Amino acid sequence: MHIAMSAFILDTLAPDLIAAVRAGLPVTAVDDALASGRVTAAELDRLAIPRKTLAHRRAKGRLTPDQSDRLLRVLRIVTEAETAFADRVRAGIWLRRPTTTLGGEAPLDLLDTEIGARQVETLLGRIAHGIAA
């Protein structure tokens, strides 16, 4: 089953999302993420699934539930940044630029943990609502 990543990420209430993550997303989800240009292979290697592991998962055809969850976390935050900034390029720059609000780290670098992702989401919510970040 090929899953349209953008539809799942933008529609967080999609009833199939939990089942898809639990079953493991198809490896093509990684390919779709890379083809979109929203994240690089190096970023996915660091934040969601190491390249060597990805090569192994290609043979199996699916990511593990944990890998699927990490991939969706990264793509969800990228989507939220694009929405907050209403511009894909500006969002990409912001995600990769260190900020004092996040302890001098780039928002994207915090997405390797759920708590880091929540901090980035909180900051994006403030930005989206015009609250000084």
Automatic annotation (TrEMBL):
<dbReference type="InterPro" id="IPR046847">
    <property type="entry name" value="Xre-like_HTH"/>
</dbReference>
<dbReference type="GO" id="GO:0003677">
    <property type="term" value="F:DNA binding"/>
</dbReference>
<feature type="domain" description="Antitoxin Xre-like helix-turn-helix">
    <location>
        <begin position="16"/>
        <end position="76"/>
    </location>
</feature>
<dbReference type="Pfam" id="PF20432">
    <property type="entry name" value="Xre-like-HTH"/>
</dbReference>
<dbReference type="InterPro" id="IPR011979">
    <property type="entry name" value="Antitox_Xre"/>
</dbReference>
<dbReference type="InterPro" id="IPR024467">
    <property type="entry name" value="Xre/MbcA/ParS-like_toxin-bd"/>
</dbReference>
<dbReference type="Pfam" id="PF09722">
    <property type="entry name" value="Xre_MbcA_ParS_C"/>
</dbReference>
<protein>
    <recommendedName>
        <fullName>DUF2384 domain-containing protein</fullName>
    </recommendedName>
</protein>
<feature type="domain" description="Antitoxin Xre/MbcA/ParS-like toxin-binding">
    <location>
        <begin position="81"/>
        <end position="130"/>
    </location>
</feature>
